[in-house]
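Design job #97: recover the sequence.
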């Protein structure tokens, strides 16, 4: 097999190994925002990402089910308040995702 075929096969394998849960654009935005802060409230994330209430809720549920985020719901002045933060597993998964994407973009083997 020519070297170029082998290189492209390795690149495809790297891409196939990317965490698809994080790679989806809306979830990638959520993870990226949460990566740089200790925690964020639902309305902040909704404004920052441009997602609708239902869309953000759906993506949050998927990330929570994977163990990537923690969702804390409480009442503040009798109004519901939802806070989100990355779990240690989520922070690690996002770091791995970033490293994998950098390798793919650099063309590392």
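Job complete. Output follows.
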């Amino acid at each position: 097999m020519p070297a170029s075929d082998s290189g492209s096969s390795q690149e495809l394998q790297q891409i196939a190994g990317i965490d698809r849960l994080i790679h989806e654009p809306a979830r990638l935005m959520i993870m990226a925002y949460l990566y740089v802060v200790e925690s964020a409230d639902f309305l902040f994330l909704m404004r920052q990402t441009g997602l609708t209430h239902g869309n953000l809720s759906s993506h949050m549920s998927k990330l929570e089910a994977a163990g990537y985020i923690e969702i804390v719901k409480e009442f503040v002045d009798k109004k519901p308040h939802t806070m989100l933060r990355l779990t240690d597993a989520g922070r690690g998964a996002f770091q791995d995702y970033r490293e994998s994407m950098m390798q793919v973009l650099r063309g590392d083997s």
